[in-house]
User: Fold Antibiotic biosynthesis monooxygenase from Oceanobacillus piezotolerans.
Amino acid sequence: MYIVNSVVTVPEEKAEEVINIYRNRSRLVDNAVGFLSFQLLQNQKKPSELTVHLEWDSRENYLKWARSDEYKKIHELEKKYPDQELASIIPRVTQYKVVAK
Assistant:
């Protein structure tokens, strides 16, 4: 299994707005080969810190997704988000190979 986390810190007053964006996400990734799950995590001590947590069956399938037209489409939409403060936030991405369960 392969895990990709994208962490963003948003203005505290906009955290709920971002959460709602993800609640209404396009779900294009859900049909990608090897995609297992999506979760949006909110840090309990820092509510303005949100983590997009994706699980994949393999690094190879994640990379296929990350190079796909669907991936590009989603990220182009983010750049066009009306709230430019949110659109300009760059996530900190970490990737993990699951080595034990």
Observations:
- Residues 28 and 70 are 7 Å apart (CA to CA).
- Residues 2-97 form a domain with the Alpha-Beta Plaits fold (CATH 3.30.70.100).
- The chain is about 30% helix and 30% strand.
- Strands lie at 2-9, 35-42, 49-56, 92-97.
